[in-house]
Amino acid sequence: MRWYAVHTRSKCEKAVRTELTVKGVENFLPSIHEIHRWKDREKAVELPVFPGYIFVRILNRPADIIPVLRTEGAVRILGGSREIEPVPDSEIESIRRLVDAKLPFFPHACLHEGDRVKVKKGPLKDVEGSLIRVNQHQGRLVLAVEMLSRAVAVEVDLRDIEVLRSPSFYRTRMTA
Fold first, then answer.
1. Which residues pair with 141 in a beta bridge?
2. Which residues of the chain have pLDDT under 50?
3. HEC-encoded secondary structure of the chain
4. pTM of the full structure
């Protein structure tokens, strides 16, 4: 049995989890608990770490795949055009251990060198550039004047940027 990522309809992760559990399908929905405040009240809410996705542990055979796909709110199992692709057990185990450890964490974009990014906050808010180096908490953002073939670089906090375009994503999709 292997782990697979199931894409769900928007905000249907918990309903899919419930239905899969009723069907006896092993599943994992990593979530974080946050306190949301409104003017008149506070409420603890459970939010998925990966919105729009839940993980299932099944065999890659129609008898196991079909019940997952027939689950209300499930869209598809991720993979190529003809074959579903498993998620490495080590990745699921790492996420499970983090959730179980009850350490504070937050969702974060998967950043790669070469990504086109935009700064979300701080003095460089709304500035766009290319991410050329990623280390533990910082990245080197390059701002270029293409006409001059010149650029400047600045270190930015990785939590303050969002990915606009990822060259590796497009290369993978174009060749698939």
1. 131, 154
2. 169-176
3. CEEEEEEECCCCHHHHHHHHHHCCCEEECCEEEEEEECCCCEEEEEEECCCCEEEEEECCCHHHHHHHHCCCCEEEECECCCCECEECHHHHHHHHHHHHHCCCCCCCCCCCCCCEEEECCCCCCCCEEEEEEECCCEEEEEEEEHHHCEEEEEEEEHHHEEEEECHHHHHHHHHC
4. 0.69
